[in-house]
Protein backbone atom coordinates (compact mmCIF):
# COMPACT_ATOMS: atom_id res chain seq x y z
CA UNK A 1 0.00 0.00 0.00
CA UNK A 2 1.69 3.20 -1.20
CA UNK A 3 1.53 6.34 0.97
CA UNK A 4 2.77 9.71 -0.28
CA UNK A 5 4.05 12.39 2.08
CA UNK A 6 5.35 15.87 1.41
CA UNK A 7 6.91 17.63 4.39
CA UNK A 8 7.38 21.38 4.68
CA UNK A 9 11.04 21.25 5.59
CA UNK A 10 12.50 18.96 8.24
CA UNK A 11 11.56 18.48 11.87
CA UNK A 12 14.14 20.21 14.07
CA UNK A 13 14.98 20.92 17.69
CA UNK A 14 17.09 23.96 18.58
CA UNK A 15 18.52 23.90 22.11
CA UNK A 16 20.65 26.40 24.00
CA UNK A 17 21.28 27.35 27.63
CA UNK A 18 17.97 29.21 27.99
CA UNK A 19 15.45 27.63 25.64
CA UNK A 20 14.44 24.64 23.54
CA UNK A 21 12.49 25.00 20.30
CA UNK A 22 10.70 21.97 18.79
CA UNK A 23 9.33 22.36 15.27
CA UNK A 24 7.56 19.38 13.66
CA UNK A 25 7.20 19.40 9.87
CA UNK A 26 3.71 18.16 8.90
CA UNK A 27 2.54 16.47 5.73
CA UNK A 28 1.57 19.31 3.40
CA UNK A 29 -0.54 17.06 1.15
CA UNK A 30 -3.17 16.68 3.88
CA UNK A 31 -5.64 19.28 5.12
CA UNK A 32 -3.89 22.09 7.03
CA UNK A 33 -3.21 20.89 10.58
CA UNK A 34 -0.96 22.92 12.84
CA UNK A 35 -0.31 23.91 16.45
CA UNK A 36 1.91 26.55 18.05
CA UNK A 37 2.44 26.88 21.80
CA UNK A 38 4.88 26.85 24.72
CA UNK A 39 5.28 23.86 27.00
CA UNK A 40 4.22 24.24 30.61
CA UNK A 41 4.62 20.68 31.97
CA UNK A 42 8.14 20.17 30.63
CA UNK A 43 9.52 17.21 32.61
CA UNK A 44 6.36 15.13 32.41
CA UNK A 45 6.18 15.75 28.64
CA UNK A 46 9.82 14.77 28.22
CA UNK A 47 9.30 11.46 30.01
CA UNK A 48 6.06 10.70 28.16
CA UNK A 49 7.40 11.45 24.68
CA UNK A 50 10.49 9.37 25.51
CA UNK A 51 8.27 6.44 26.52
CA UNK A 52 6.51 6.81 23.17
CA UNK A 53 9.90 6.49 21.50
CA UNK A 54 10.40 3.22 23.41
CA UNK A 55 7.31 1.87 21.66
CA UNK A 56 8.62 2.87 18.21
CA UNK A 57 11.94 1.04 18.68
CA UNK A 58 10.38 -1.97 20.46
CA UNK A 59 10.88 -5.32 18.73
CA UNK A 60 10.24 -8.46 20.78
CA UNK A 61 10.53 -10.88 17.86
CA UNK A 62 12.99 -13.75 18.21
CA UNK A 63 16.28 -12.87 16.55
CA UNK A 64 18.41 -15.94 15.73
CA UNK A 65 22.18 -15.59 15.81
CA UNK A 66 23.84 -14.70 12.53
CA UNK A 67 25.79 -17.82 11.57
CA UNK A 68 26.83 -16.63 8.12
CA UNK A 69 30.50 -16.23 9.05
CA UNK A 70 30.59 -19.60 10.80
CA UNK A 71 29.00 -21.40 7.85
CA UNK A 72 31.49 -19.78 5.47
CA UNK A 73 34.38 -20.88 7.69
CA UNK A 74 32.93 -24.40 8.04
CA UNK A 75 32.61 -24.72 4.26
CA UNK A 76 36.29 -23.82 3.87
CA UNK A 77 37.36 -26.14 6.67
CA UNK A 78 35.38 -29.01 5.16
CA UNK A 79 37.60 -28.89 2.11
CA UNK A 80 40.71 -28.94 4.28
CA UNK A 81 39.46 -31.78 6.48
CA UNK A 82 38.47 -33.78 3.41
CA UNK A 83 41.87 -33.27 1.83
CA UNK A 84 43.61 -34.33 5.07
CA UNK A 85 41.46 -37.47 5.24
CA UNK A 86 42.22 -38.39 1.65
CA UNK A 87 45.90 -37.59 2.12
CA UNK A 88 46.16 -40.10 4.96
CA UNK A 89 45.07 -42.81 2.54
CA UNK A 90 47.56 -41.90 -0.20
CA UNK A 91 51.26 -41.89 -0.62
CA UNK A 92 53.56 -39.13 0.60
CA UNK A 93 53.60 -37.42 -2.80
CA UNK A 94 49.84 -36.79 -2.55
CA UNK A 95 50.33 -35.23 0.89
CA UNK A 96 52.96 -32.89 -0.52
CA UNK A 97 50.64 -31.93 -3.39
CA UNK A 98 47.78 -31.26 -0.95
CA UNK A 99 50.03 -29.04 1.12
CA UNK A 100 50.83 -26.98 -1.97
CA UNK A 101 47.12 -26.71 -2.90
CA UNK A 102 46.27 -25.70 0.67
CA UNK A 103 48.85 -22.94 0.57
CA UNK A 104 47.43 -21.73 -2.75
CA UNK A 105 43.92 -21.68 -1.27
CA UNK A 106 45.14 -19.60 1.68
CA UNK A 107 46.65 -17.08 -0.73
CA UNK A 108 43.36 -16.93 -2.67
CA UNK A 109 41.39 -16.38 0.53
CA UNK A 110 43.76 -13.59 1.61
CA UNK A 111 43.49 -11.93 -1.79
CA UNK A 112 39.68 -12.12 -1.70
CA UNK A 113 39.63 -10.55 1.77
CA UNK A 114 41.99 -7.79 0.56
CA UNK A 115 39.76 -6.98 -2.42
CA UNK A 116 36.33 -7.25 -0.77
CA UNK A 117 37.38 -6.09 2.72
CA UNK A 118 36.92 -2.32 2.14
CA UNK A 119 33.48 -2.92 0.64
CA UNK A 120 32.37 -5.06 3.59
CA UNK A 121 33.74 -2.50 6.06
CA UNK A 122 32.02 0.39 4.28
CA UNK A 123 28.71 -1.51 4.20
CA UNK A 124 28.89 -2.23 7.92
CA UNK A 125 29.81 1.38 8.72
CA UNK A 126 26.94 2.66 6.57
CA UNK A 127 24.30 0.59 8.37
CA UNK A 128 25.85 1.43 11.73
CA UNK A 129 25.60 5.10 10.79
CA UNK A 130 21.95 4.71 9.76
CA UNK A 131 21.08 2.95 12.99
CA UNK A 132 22.81 5.53 15.20
CA UNK A 133 22.22 8.76 13.28
CA UNK A 134 19.14 8.24 11.11
CA UNK A 135 17.28 5.38 12.74
CA UNK A 136 13.95 6.51 11.28
CA UNK A 137 15.08 4.89 7.99
CA UNK A 138 14.62 1.57 9.77
CA UNK A 139 10.97 2.24 10.55
CA UNK A 140 8.02 2.02 8.18
CA UNK A 141 5.99 5.10 9.04
CA UNK A 142 6.29 8.44 10.78
CA UNK A 143 4.08 8.93 13.83
CA UNK A 144 0.50 10.15 13.44
CA UNK A 145 -0.41 13.35 15.28
CA UNK A 146 -3.93 14.70 15.74
CA UNK A 147 -4.98 18.17 16.91
CA UNK A 148 -8.40 18.38 18.60
CA UNK A 149 -10.22 21.26 20.30
CA UNK A 150 -9.31 19.87 23.73
CA UNK A 151 -5.99 18.05 23.20
CA UNK A 152 -3.13 17.02 20.93
CA UNK A 153 -2.29 13.33 20.72
CA UNK A 154 0.47 11.24 19.15
CA UNK A 155 0.08 7.62 18.01
CA UNK A 156 2.72 5.08 17.01
CA UNK A 157 3.30 1.36 16.48
CA UNK A 158 6.22 -0.91 17.39
CA UNK A 159 8.42 -2.59 14.80
CA UNK A 160 7.00 -6.03 15.58
CA UNK A 161 3.44 -4.62 15.34
CA UNK A 162 2.48 -6.00 18.76
CA UNK A 163 2.63 -2.77 20.79
CA UNK A 164 0.63 0.43 20.36
CA UNK A 165 1.42 3.75 22.02
CA UNK A 166 -0.63 6.90 22.37
CA UNK A 167 0.21 10.14 24.17
CA UNK A 168 -2.61 12.60 24.83
CA UNK A 169 -1.79 16.12 26.00
CA UNK A 170 -4.56 18.55 26.90
CA UNK A 171 -4.04 22.27 26.55
CA UNK A 172 -3.05 22.76 30.20
CA UNK A 173 0.28 21.24 29.19
CA UNK A 174 0.88 24.49 27.27
CA UNK A 175 0.96 27.92 28.87
CA UNK A 176 0.71 29.84 25.62
CA UNK A 177 -1.24 28.70 22.57
CA UNK A 178 -0.87 31.05 19.63
CA UNK A 179 -2.81 29.21 16.94
CA UNK A 180 -4.01 25.75 15.99
CA UNK A 181 -6.09 23.99 13.34
CA UNK A 182 -7.81 20.68 14.10
CA UNK A 183 -7.04 17.63 12.00
CA UNK A 184 -4.74 14.65 11.59
CA UNK A 185 -1.37 14.61 9.87
CA UNK A 186 1.83 12.62 9.67
CA UNK A 187 4.88 14.42 10.99
CA UNK A 188 8.50 14.12 9.97
CA UNK A 189 9.90 12.59 13.16
CA UNK A 190 13.56 11.60 13.12
CA UNK A 191 14.77 9.29 15.87
CA UNK A 192 17.66 11.70 16.48
CA UNK A 193 15.04 13.91 18.14
CA UNK A 194 14.99 11.47 21.06
CA UNK A 195 18.39 12.72 22.20
CA UNK A 196 17.21 16.30 21.82
CA UNK A 197 14.11 15.64 23.92
CA UNK A 198 16.40 14.66 26.77
CA UNK A 199 17.68 18.26 26.86
CA UNK A 200 14.28 19.62 27.97
CA UNK A 201 14.65 21.17 31.43
CA UNK A 202 12.28 22.94 33.79
CA UNK A 203 14.33 26.15 33.68
CA UNK A 204 14.39 26.24 29.86
CA UNK A 205 11.62 27.85 27.82
CA UNK A 206 10.35 25.20 25.39
CA UNK A 207 8.49 26.09 22.20
CA UNK A 208 6.28 23.38 20.66
CA UNK A 209 5.27 23.84 17.04
CA UNK A 210 3.58 21.78 14.36
CA UNK A 211 4.74 24.22 11.76
CA UNK A 212 1.84 26.00 10.00
CA UNK A 213 4.23 27.68 7.57
CA UNK A 214 4.50 24.41 5.67
CA UNK A 215 1.06 25.09 4.21
CA UNK A 216 1.59 28.69 3.19
CA UNK A 217 4.91 28.64 1.31
CA UNK A 218 4.47 29.24 -2.40
CA UNK A 219 5.73 26.98 -5.17
CA UNK A 220 8.79 29.19 -5.59
CA UNK A 221 10.14 27.51 -2.46
CA UNK A 222 9.34 24.01 -3.69
CA UNK A 223 12.92 22.94 -3.05
CA UNK A 224 12.33 23.32 0.67
CA UNK A 225 9.85 20.46 0.67
CA UNK A 226 10.84 16.87 1.27
CA UNK A 227 8.83 14.27 -0.61
CA UNK A 228 8.61 10.76 0.79
CA UNK A 229 6.91 7.74 -0.76
CA UNK A 230 6.50 4.80 1.60
CA UNK A 231 5.25 1.41 0.47
CA UNK A 232 3.58 0.29 3.70
CA UNK A 233 2.77 -3.32 4.45
CA UNK A 234 -0.96 -3.84 4.78
CA UNK A 235 -0.31 -5.41 8.18
CA UNK A 236 0.76 -2.04 9.66
CA UNK A 237 -2.48 -0.30 8.65
CA UNK A 238 -4.63 -3.32 9.52
CA UNK A 239 -2.99 -3.52 12.95
CA UNK A 240 -3.76 0.15 13.62
CA UNK A 241 -7.42 -0.46 12.86
CA UNK A 242 -7.56 -3.63 14.97
CA UNK A 243 -6.29 -1.65 17.98
CA UNK A 244 -9.14 0.82 17.55
CA UNK A 245 -11.68 -2.02 17.34
CA UNK A 246 -10.23 -3.82 20.38
CA UNK A 247 -10.63 -0.67 22.48
CA UNK A 248 -14.41 -0.86 22.05
CA UNK A 249 -14.67 -4.40 23.50
CA UNK A 250 -15.92 -5.16 27.06
CA UNK A 251 -13.06 -5.20 29.56
CA UNK A 252 -12.22 -5.87 33.20
CA UNK A 253 -10.66 -2.75 34.67
CA UNK A 254 -8.89 -1.77 37.89
CA UNK A 255 -6.34 0.77 39.07
CA UNK A 256 -2.71 0.20 40.03
CA UNK A 257 -0.63 2.49 42.22
CA UNK A 258 2.66 3.64 40.57
CA UNK A 259 4.65 1.76 43.23
CA UNK A 260 2.86 -1.45 42.26
CA UNK A 261 3.90 -0.90 38.64
CA UNK A 262 7.43 -0.26 39.93
CA UNK A 263 7.38 -3.64 41.70
CA UNK A 264 6.26 -5.33 38.46
CA UNK A 265 9.11 -3.76 36.50
CA UNK A 266 11.61 -4.55 39.28
CA UNK A 267 10.66 -8.23 39.26
CA UNK A 268 10.92 -8.39 35.47
CA UNK A 269 14.37 -6.80 35.66
CA UNK A 270 15.62 -9.15 38.41
CA UNK A 271 14.41 -12.47 37.03
CA UNK A 272 14.80 -13.93 33.55
CA UNK A 273 12.61 -16.91 32.68
CA UNK A 274 14.15 -19.80 30.75
CA UNK A 275 11.03 -21.93 30.26
CA UNK A 276 7.29 -21.29 29.86
CA UNK A 277 4.68 -20.32 30.69
CA UNK A 278 5.92 -16.74 30.64
CA UNK A 279 2.75 -15.09 31.87
CA UNK A 280 1.27 -12.84 34.54
CA UNK A 281 -1.84 -14.12 36.24
CA UNK A 282 -4.08 -11.33 37.58
CA UNK A 283 -6.06 -12.69 40.55
CA UNK A 284 -8.98 -10.33 41.19
CA UNK A 285 -11.19 -10.68 44.28
CA UNK A 286 -13.86 -8.09 45.19
CA UNK A 287 -12.69 -5.49 47.74
CA UNK A 288 -9.26 -7.14 48.07
CA UNK A 289 -5.83 -6.06 46.83
CA UNK A 290 -4.97 -7.04 43.27
CA UNK A 291 -2.64 -10.05 43.24
CA UNK A 292 -0.18 -10.81 40.43
CA UNK A 293 1.39 -14.24 40.00
CA UNK A 294 4.43 -14.44 37.72
CA UNK A 295 4.95 -17.77 36.01
CA UNK A 296 6.99 -19.99 35.73
CA UNK A 297 8.89 -19.03 38.88
CA UNK A 298 5.60 -18.45 40.77
CA UNK A 299 6.61 -15.20 42.41
CA UNK A 300 3.67 -13.21 43.75
CA UNK A 301 3.11 -9.48 44.09
CA UNK A 302 0.27 -8.32 46.33
CA UNK A 303 -0.67 -4.76 45.35
CA UNK A 304 -1.70 -3.52 48.80
CA UNK A 305 -2.29 0.01 47.47
CA UNK A 306 -4.57 -1.20 44.65
CA UNK A 307 -7.96 -2.68 45.58
CA UNK A 308 -10.17 -4.43 43.02
CA UNK A 309 -13.70 -2.94 43.15
CA UNK A 310 -15.45 -5.42 40.83
CA UNK A 311 -18.28 -7.73 41.84
CA UNK A 312 -16.91 -11.08 40.61
CA UNK A 313 -13.85 -13.19 41.31
CA UNK A 314 -11.73 -13.34 38.13
CA UNK A 315 -8.40 -14.78 37.06
CA UNK A 316 -6.95 -13.40 33.84
CA UNK A 317 -3.60 -14.32 32.30
CA UNK A 318 -1.56 -12.20 29.91
CA UNK A 319 1.60 -13.00 27.97
CA UNK A 320 4.33 -10.85 26.46
CA UNK A 321 4.83 -9.20 29.84
CA UNK A 322 8.29 -7.74 29.19
CA UNK A 323 6.64 -5.10 27.04
CA UNK A 324 5.37 -3.60 30.33
CA UNK A 325 8.88 -2.26 30.90
CA UNK A 326 7.90 0.55 28.51
CA UNK A 327 5.91 1.98 31.45
CA UNK A 328 9.03 2.15 33.61
CA UNK A 329 9.93 5.70 32.68
CA UNK A 330 6.44 6.98 33.51
CA UNK A 331 6.42 5.78 37.12
CA UNK A 332 7.95 8.95 38.68
CA UNK A 333 5.48 11.28 36.94
CA UNK A 334 2.32 9.12 37.00
CA UNK A 335 -0.53 9.57 39.48
CA UNK A 336 -2.03 6.15 38.80
CA UNK A 337 -2.27 3.41 36.17
CA UNK A 338 -5.60 2.02 34.96
CA UNK A 339 -5.53 -1.49 33.53
CA UNK A 340 -8.10 -2.78 31.01
CA UNK A 341 -8.03 -6.55 30.35
CA UNK A 342 -10.14 -7.95 27.51
CA UNK A 343 -9.54 -11.55 28.66
CA UNK A 344 -6.93 -14.31 29.03
CA UNK A 345 -4.61 -14.30 26.03
CA UNK A 346 -6.44 -11.28 24.60
CA UNK A 347 -5.31 -7.64 24.32
CA UNK A 348 -4.67 -5.46 27.37
CA UNK A 349 -4.43 -1.69 27.78
CA UNK A 350 -2.55 0.31 30.40
CA UNK A 351 -3.40 3.99 30.83
CA UNK A 352 -1.01 6.17 32.81
CA UNK A 353 -2.58 9.27 34.40
CA UNK A 354 0.08 11.98 34.11
CA UNK A 355 -2.16 14.82 35.25
CA UNK A 356 -2.80 16.88 32.15
CA UNK A 357 -1.43 14.09 29.98
CA UNK A 358 -2.50 10.49 29.42
CA UNK A 359 -0.30 7.72 28.08
CA UNK A 360 -1.96 4.60 26.64
CA UNK A 361 -0.01 1.39 26.08
CA UNK A 362 -1.87 -1.28 24.09
CA UNK A 363 -0.49 -4.83 24.01
CA UNK A 364 -1.63 -7.70 21.82
CA UNK A 365 -2.32 -11.11 23.38
CA UNK A 366 1.40 -11.99 23.32
CA UNK A 367 4.52 -10.68 21.59
CA UNK A 368 4.39 -13.02 18.58
CA UNK A 369 0.63 -12.44 18.24
CA UNK A 370 0.74 -9.09 16.46
CA UNK A 371 -2.32 -6.91 16.01
CA UNK A 372 -2.62 -7.40 12.28
CA UNK A 373 -2.47 -11.06 11.32
CA UNK A 374 -4.16 -12.97 14.15
CA UNK A 375 -6.72 -11.08 16.23
CA UNK A 376 -9.80 -10.14 14.21
CA UNK A 377 -11.28 -7.88 16.87
CA UNK A 378 -13.33 -5.96 14.32
CA UNK A 379 -15.60 -9.05 14.19
CA UNK A 380 -16.31 -8.67 17.92
CA UNK A 381 -16.89 -4.90 17.83
CA UNK A 382 -20.36 -3.28 17.44
CA UNK A 383 -21.88 -4.58 14.18
CA UNK A 384 -25.39 -3.12 14.03
CA UNK A 385 -26.70 -2.64 10.48
CA UNK A 386 -26.76 1.06 9.55
CA UNK A 387 -27.60 2.39 6.11
CA UNK A 388 -25.03 4.59 4.41
CA UNK A 389 -27.04 7.82 4.63
CA UNK A 390 -27.62 7.49 8.39
CA UNK A 391 -24.01 6.49 9.03
CA UNK A 392 -22.71 9.51 7.11
CA UNK A 393 -25.01 11.84 9.06
CA UNK A 394 -23.70 10.43 12.33
CA UNK A 395 -20.11 10.88 11.16
CA UNK A 396 -20.78 14.48 10.05
CA UNK A 397 -22.41 15.22 13.41
CA UNK A 398 -19.35 13.85 15.24
CA UNK A 399 -17.08 15.95 13.06
CA UNK A 400 -18.91 19.11 14.16
CA UNK A 401 -17.55 18.67 17.72
CA UNK A 402 -14.56 16.42 16.81
CA UNK A 403 -15.27 14.19 19.82
CA UNK A 404 -18.37 13.09 21.71
CA UNK A 405 -19.78 10.26 23.82
CA UNK A 406 -22.04 7.89 21.86
CA UNK A 407 -25.03 8.41 24.17
CA UNK A 408 -24.74 12.19 23.96
CA UNK A 409 -24.43 11.98 20.18
CA UNK A 410 -27.50 9.72 19.97
CA UNK A 411 -29.50 12.14 22.13
CA UNK A 412 -28.43 15.11 20.00
CA UNK A 413 -29.44 13.31 16.78
CA UNK A 414 -32.61 11.87 18.33
CA UNK A 415 -31.63 8.29 17.44
CA UNK A 416 -30.90 5.13 19.42
CA UNK A 417 -27.47 4.37 20.84
CA UNK A 418 -27.12 1.06 18.97
CA UNK A 419 -27.31 2.85 15.63
CA UNK A 420 -24.62 5.31 16.73
CA UNK A 421 -22.36 2.48 17.95
CA UNK A 422 -22.85 0.58 14.70
CA UNK A 423 -22.07 3.60 12.51
CA UNK A 424 -19.04 4.69 14.51
CA UNK A 425 -17.81 1.10 14.65
CA UNK A 426 -17.86 1.02 10.85
CA UNK A 427 -15.92 4.28 10.61
CA UNK A 428 -13.45 3.02 13.22
CA UNK A 429 -12.75 0.00 11.02
CA UNK A 430 -12.29 2.38 8.06
CA UNK A 431 -9.65 4.43 9.91
CA UNK A 432 -11.78 7.59 10.19
CA UNK A 433 -12.55 7.52 13.93
CA UNK A 434 -10.88 6.22 17.07
CA UNK A 435 -12.32 5.24 20.43
CA UNK A 436 -10.77 7.11 23.37
CA UNK A 437 -10.66 4.43 26.07
CA UNK A 438 -9.70 6.92 28.77
CA UNK A 439 -12.58 9.38 28.32
CA UNK A 440 -15.10 6.99 26.73
CA UNK A 441 -15.59 9.15 23.63
CA UNK A 442 -15.24 8.65 19.89
CA UNK A 443 -12.83 11.04 18.17
CA UNK A 444 -12.29 12.02 14.55
CA UNK A 445 -8.92 10.63 13.41
CA UNK A 446 -8.39 9.99 9.70
CA UNK A 447 -5.47 7.60 9.48
CA UNK A 448 -4.92 8.24 5.78
CA UNK A 449 -5.53 11.10 3.39
CA UNK A 450 -7.12 8.76 0.84
CA UNK A 451 -9.89 6.27 1.72
CA UNK A 452 -8.42 3.00 2.89
CA UNK A 453 -9.06 -0.08 0.70
CA UNK A 454 -11.20 -1.95 3.19
CA UNK A 455 -11.43 -5.14 1.11
CA UNK A 456 -7.69 -5.17 0.65
CA UNK A 457 -7.27 -4.92 4.41
CA UNK A 458 -9.56 -7.96 4.76
CA UNK A 459 -12.10 -6.60 7.14
CA UNK A 460 -14.47 -8.76 5.08
CA UNK A 461 -13.01 -11.72 6.94
CA UNK A 462 -13.12 -15.20 5.33
CA UNK A 463 -14.96 -16.54 8.37
CA UNK A 464 -17.51 -13.76 7.96
CA UNK A 465 -18.04 -14.85 4.34
CA UNK A 466 -18.54 -18.45 5.46
CA UNK A 467 -21.05 -17.27 8.09
CA UNK A 468 -23.06 -15.38 5.48
CA UNK A 469 -23.09 -18.48 3.29
CA UNK A 470 -24.45 -20.58 6.18
CA UNK A 471 -27.24 -18.06 6.76
CA UNK A 472 -28.15 -17.84 3.05
CA UNK A 473 -28.35 -21.63 2.80
CA UNK A 474 -30.67 -21.64 5.85
CA UNK A 475 -28.41 -23.89 7.89
CA UNK A 476 -28.72 -21.79 11.08
CA UNK A 477 -31.44 -22.19 13.71
CA UNK A 478 -31.40 -19.92 16.75
CA UNK A 479 -33.25 -19.10 19.95
CA UNK A 480 -32.84 -15.80 21.80
CA UNK A 481 -33.31 -14.54 25.34
CA UNK A 482 -33.36 -10.86 26.24
CA UNK A 483 -31.94 -9.77 29.61
CA UNK A 484 -31.18 -6.45 31.26
CA UNK A 485 -27.49 -6.84 30.37
CA UNK A 486 -27.98 -7.77 26.72
CA UNK A 487 -29.08 -10.53 24.36
CA UNK A 488 -28.26 -14.24 24.68
CA UNK A 489 -28.33 -16.28 21.44
CA UNK A 490 -27.99 -20.06 21.19
CA UNK A 491 -28.21 -22.04 17.99
CA UNK A 492 -27.55 -25.11 15.90
CA UNK A 493 -25.58 -24.88 12.67
CA UNK A 494 -25.56 -27.60 10.02
CA UNK A 495 -22.11 -28.35 8.69
CA UNK A 496 -20.96 -30.57 5.84
CA UNK A 497 -20.30 -33.56 8.08
CA UNK A 498 -21.76 -32.66 11.49
CA UNK A 499 -23.86 -30.13 13.36
CA UNK A 500 -22.36 -27.44 15.59
CA UNK A 501 -23.78 -25.92 18.77
CA UNK A 502 -22.82 -22.33 19.49
CA UNK A 503 -23.87 -19.54 21.83
CA UNK A 504 -23.07 -15.85 22.04
CA UNK A 505 -23.94 -13.05 24.45
CA UNK A 506 -24.23 -9.57 22.92
CA UNK A 507 -24.24 -6.66 25.37
CA UNK A 508 -26.37 -3.54 25.07
CA UNK A 509 -23.68 -1.85 22.99
CA UNK A 510 -23.88 -4.56 20.27
CA UNK A 511 -20.51 -6.06 21.25
CA UNK A 512 -19.71 -9.75 21.68
CA UNK A 513 -19.10 -10.12 25.42
CA UNK A 514 -19.03 -13.95 25.64
CA UNK A 515 -19.19 -16.76 23.11
CA UNK A 516 -18.71 -20.53 22.88
CA UNK A 517 -18.80 -23.20 20.14
CA UNK A 518 -17.90 -26.87 19.82
CA UNK A 519 -16.11 -26.48 16.48
CA UNK A 520 -12.39 -27.18 16.05
CA UNK A 521 -11.49 -23.51 15.44
CA UNK A 522 -13.04 -22.37 18.74
CA UNK A 523 -11.67 -25.33 20.76
CA UNK A 524 -8.17 -24.57 19.49
CA UNK A 525 -8.20 -20.76 19.58
CA UNK A 526 -11.12 -19.68 21.83
CA UNK A 527 -11.56 -15.99 20.93
CA UNK A 528 -7.81 -15.28 20.61
CA UNK A 529 -8.16 -15.11 16.82
CA UNK A 530 -11.66 -13.68 16.81
CA UNK A 531 -14.98 -15.61 16.68
CA UNK A 532 -15.52 -18.65 14.47
CA UNK A 533 -17.93 -18.62 11.51
CA UNK A 534 -20.64 -20.36 13.57
CA UNK A 535 -20.67 -17.63 16.25
CA UNK A 536 -20.76 -14.95 13.54
CA UNK A 537 -23.61 -16.81 11.80
CA UNK A 538 -25.71 -16.67 14.99
CA UNK A 539 -25.31 -12.92 15.07
CA UNK A 540 -26.17 -12.47 11.39
CA UNK A 541 -29.24 -14.72 11.67
CA UNK A 542 -30.50 -12.84 14.75
CA UNK A 543 -30.00 -9.50 13.03
CA UNK A 544 -31.92 -10.61 9.94
CA UNK A 545 -34.83 -11.93 12.01
CA UNK A 546 -34.91 -8.71 13.99
Structural class: alpha+beta
CATH superfamily of the largest domain: DNA Polymerase III, subunit A, domain 2
Total of DSSP H or I helical runs spanning 4+ residues? 12
- Looking at the overall shape, the CATH architecture of the largest domain is Roll
Our measurement of the CA-to-CA distance between the termini, rounded to an integer number of angstroms, reads: 39 Å
Helix content: 25-40%
Mean pLDDT: 79
> What is the CATH topology assignment of the largest domain?
DNA Polymerase III, Chain A, domain 2
Largest sheet: 13 strands, mixed
Rg of Cα set:
28 Å
| Tally of structural domains | 4
Task: State the name of the first-level CATH class of the largest domain.
Answer: Alpha Beta
Low-confidence stretches: 135-141, 214-231, 454-460
Give the beta-strand count: 26
Q: Rough shape?
A: globular
Strand portion: 25-35%
Brief sketch in words of this structure:
The chain has 546 residues and is an alpha+beta fold. It is 32% helix and 30% strand. Helix 8 crosses helix 9.
